[in-house]
Amino acid sequence: MTHADFVADTGIARQRHTLADGRDLIYFDDPDTKLPKHRAPDLRELDPRPVTARMRQDPLSAEWVSIAAARQNRVFLPPANLDPLAPSTPENLSEVPSNYDVAVFENKTPSFGPLLTDPDAPVDLTDLSTIGLGRTRTSVGRCEVVCFSPESEGSFASLSVTRARTVIEAWAERTHALSNLPGIEQVFPFENRGEAIGVTLRHPHGQIYAYPYVTPRTQRVISSLESYGPTLFADILAHEQSGERIIVQGAHWTAFVPFAARWPIEVHMLPHRHVPDFAATTLAERDELAVLYRRLLRGIDAIYTTPTPYIAAWHQAPVHARRSEIRLMLQVTSPRRAEDRLKYLAGSEAAMGAWIGDVTPEQAATTIRAAIDRADAADASASGSATPKRPDSTFPTTCEVFEHA
């Protein structure tokens, strides 16, 4: 697929607005929304947007570091009545002027952007790959916030299936739109969940970064493809589907604990066909994902008696490079290695990048499958059903939890 092949779900309405300082705001409405079509304007008096940050190159790794000093003063764990992502009220003039189902807006203190191009310091991949001392470039790009719900507490796992599907539609639409902006080389949707991860807002939300370069992690994947060959992702999927680490599987997606998992809790999920990014998924693939991904996260939350901190990272192919070889992939990681213990990245991992696992991937898969069973049973009990079912699911799917001796 090309970037022009994006197929939108017409049952999920979009409304585009502009915040008081010129930032874009887009509402995505559930198919069964009860919200009125009218949305209030942003009447706040806001300071001008911060200047675009600058990147500095590390000559030892050739990696670029964005020095976004304006982020140092961002809101930190505010009380619910001052939640900046909640719908605006006279007492709390927030980032979102009206009530909403899902809302996406440009980050007030971005790591990249708001400039998309800088005529005084043009950026291209050839320029960025050159290594030198004292090299700087403008951190062009875009950073967006994706509010999953108007509620001030929760995560993707706490959404209804219908709302989860709306969030996935927002990821697909924004991936398509951001990929078509000038200067963007890679688009990255993600969710940070829990204070142990470093979250500064408890509101259920994620972010989307649109980078001016191909990220270091993806560059390593490209190196692996050059060494192994273009069937790497397809072969990984086939290998995992024949093994004992599968967590859940549907008609379009398979989730598994990877063979060489680094983290105590780590799950990858791949689409069954080659899909470079969310924009290239079909409506049926998004429908199933709303059920399966939500169910996976609810299971991860059920491992212990309190919610699990995690990073849910959606790795997508670069906008221009290797799109026929790099496949969309979810990577959920958590440092939680016991009820009251976290894995900290100490000397070997943090300094040398040499990982030591604390839990075998096979045991981790068994633990997560059992937790999904408990989450399914809790959902069934809450709904009064004798057998597990997915709450308010309107999307047909064939998802299984795998049992292994």
Automatic annotation (TrEMBL):
Its EC number is 2.7.7.12. GO terms for biological process: galactose catabolic process via UDP-galactose, Leloir pathway. It comes from the Bacteria. Its cofactor is Zn(2+). Gene3D superfamilies: HIT-like (3.30.428.10). GO terms for cellular component: cytoplasm. Coiled coil: none annotated. Residues 130-214 form the Galactose-1-phosphate uridyl transferase N-terminal domain. Pfam families: GalP_UDP_tr_C, GalP_UDP_transf. Residues 232-370 form the Galactose-1-phosphate uridyl transferase C-terminal domain. Pathway: Carbohydrate metabolism; galactose metabolism. Keywords: Carbohydrate metabolism, Galactose metabolism, Metal-binding, Nucleotidyltransferase, Transferase, Zinc. PROSITE patterns: GAL_P_UDP_TRANSF_I (PS00117). GO terms for molecular function: UDP-glucose:hexose-1-phosphate uridylyltransferase activity; zinc ion binding. It catalyses: alpha-D-galactose 1-phosphate + UDP-alpha-D-glucose = alpha-D-glucose 1-phosphate + UDP-alpha-D-galactose. NCBIfam families: galT_1 (TIGR00209). Belongs to the galactose-1-phosphate uridylyltransferase type 1 family. This is Galactose-1-phosphate uridylyltransferase. It comes from Cryobacterium gelidum.
